[in-house]
Design goal:
It comes from Staphylococcus equorum. This is YmfK family protein. InterPro entries: ACT-like_dom_sf, ACT_dom, DUF3388, UCP021288_ACT. Pfam families: DUF3388. This protein is α/β, with parallel strands linked by helices. The chain is 32% helix and 26% strand. It is built from nine helices and twelve strands. The strands form two sheets. Strands 5-6-12-7-11-10-8-9 form an eight-stranded mixed beta sheet, with helices on both faces. A hairpin with a 2-residue loop joins strand 2 and strand 3. The radius of gyration is 23 Å and the shape is elongated.
């Protein structure tokens, strides 16, 4: 006997008439149609999102047709679940996505849990993926990358970093070449680094079929052969929605370093603790 494979769908509906028992009625209707509810949560004001499973597309279509006759709700989304859909149901809100540049996602510091979850899901994907993360110092960029790696059960390696102390790698040992690793590059540190071996290592790492995360990607592309179009995702992390991300001071430090001048008091080169 062959058992039909159940497929997941993302269902989102807007509540047009909020009355007691509405959620129970929707759940009962899905049950009568032979559609299972995997997860349900409010995803926006006046909206609910559900991950549902069904062994038959016709059942889902019939449910959609029936709901058009109900005045209390209106379906806003019914599709195969995307990553943003899964995270919206899990966290009760959608990740903010740039209206023009669909690969850019915005987070605030209070969203670190959602950000870590988002990164972990990206890190679980196989093959090459280049992710850039923008943000001012001490907002939680590096710590979020590390936490996302832990959640994805992947090892992380710093190619360049300012976490705890400044790190600039010029080589990797045999065991550090692994497609299951997350390679972390601080674009500000690498941009001002004149060590040829370090720059060669960065090029080598960028060619590996693995996850690479570049902090300060705008500075990174200014001093490398890469372009912003090479990035698969851009993440912006702010203390609050009004904080501006600017690089004037970082660029000054990069110029100082290129001219072999001291930048020991560099605000952008000092270490910092986890989520401080």
């Amino acid at each position: 006997m062959t058992v039909a494979t159940k497929k997941e769908w993302y269902l989102e509906y807007e509540i047009t008439l909020n009355r007691s028992g509405l959620l129970g009625d929707v759940s009962s209707l899905l049950g009568m149609m032979g559609i299972n509810i995997v997860t349900i949560n409010g995803v926006d004001e006046g909206r609910r999102g559900l991950l549902i499973k069904s062994d038959n597309l016709e059942k889902v279509s019939r449910f959609e047709n029936i709901v058009t006759e109900i005045d209390d709700i209106s379906i806003t989304k019914l599709r195969k679940p995307e990553l943003r859909d899964r995270l919206a149901v899990r966290h009760g809100r959608y990740i903010e996505q740039d209206a023009d540049d669909k690969k850019t996602f915005r987070f605030e510091r209070e969203d670190l849990g959602l950000l870590v979850d988002f990164m972990a899901e990206l890190f679980k994907e196989e093959g090459h993926k280049l992710i850039g993360i923008r943000g001012m110092p001490r907002v939680g960029k590096t710590e979020s990358i590390v936490a996302g790696s832990v959640c994805a059960h992947k090892r992380w390696l710093f190619i360049s970093s300012t976490l705890i102390k400044q790190t600039v790698r010029s080589s990797l040992i045999k065991g550090e070449y692994d497609s299951n690793h997350v390679y972390i590059i601080d674009g500000a540190v690498t941009a001002r680094e004149s060590n040829v071996k370090h720059q060669e290592l960065v090029k080598e790492v960028m060619s590996l079929p693995s996850i690479k995360v570049v902090e300060h990607p705008d500075l990174f592309v200014e001093t490398s052969d890469y372009e912003m179009s090479d990035f698969d995702y851009i993440i912006e992390l702010r203390e609050n929605k009004n904080q501006e991300i600017h690089y004037e001071e970082m660029k000054k430090q990069t110029v100082k370093s290129k001219n072999n001048l001291d930048f020991g008091n560099d605000e952008f080169g000092g270490g910092f603790g986890f989520f401080e």
